[in-house]
Amino acid sequence: MSLPRQRGLTEQAATTAVDQACRMLRLPTIRSQFPEVAEKAEREQMSYLGFLAELLLAECDDRARRRSERRIKAAGFPRDKALRKFDFDANPNIDAAMIHTLANCEWIKKGLPLCPIGDSGTGKSHLLIALGTEASMAGYRIRYVLATKLVNELVEAADEKQLTKTIARYGRVDLLCIDELGYMELDRRGAELLFQVLTEREEKNSVAIASNESFSGWTKIFTDPRLYAAIVDRLTFGGNIIETGTDSYRLATTRARAEQQVIG
Description:
Blueprint: H1 11-25, H2 28-43, H3 48-75, H4 96-102, H5 106-109, E1 114-118, H6 124-137, E2 142-146, H7 147-159, H8 163-172, E3 175-181, H9 188-201, E4 206-211, H10 225-236, E5 240-245, H11 249-263
Parallel strand pairs: 1-4, 1-5, 2-3, 3-4
């Protein structure tokens, strides 16, 4: 299909032609914004080149935004936890400068691990999701999963003889975020399968694991001493450890609200 070309198009005819061309070329942002940009160009006496650049940059920016949104959706984050919403004042254990440095994603580029470790309510999951979201916006492929869900999926895949395919799928993403490791003890089979995933990613792609147990407490998760030692070694070698402490931010917030209600 081709569009008719005429000299001396009326404003209405030109608008219709631009609209149709944008549909054919799949330029939705230009299609929606060109009347506004055209008025701005006329008002500010922009050159033809400046007008064209304004439209093309708007399309590029919007496409980048949509790609980021698709990557964030594909990551499977359970909720929105932006880094800008993290309250560093509420947890002095966390170094804000370090977190913002990690948000630059250099550690992902190098394939290094990350481990936020601390008690429930101290901000581990928020940081895990927030840093994963920053990585998604930077163009990296991310996958978020609960530790128990991942192990169950691996066990089912092994039973159905799909383990190699499943491990490869988790191995391809740039960053694998594993949350809530430590809330449940893993049997030997589950621990070994999780170890295979970590081995697949070692020194190639990053893994971030949030746990409520310190590394010394992981002996309760990985009961095989050799497996425990191998996993901790892989995660601590060149990795970033974020210790979020023991004081629950959620509990402190709940108590503060309760006190305010009593005073009120």
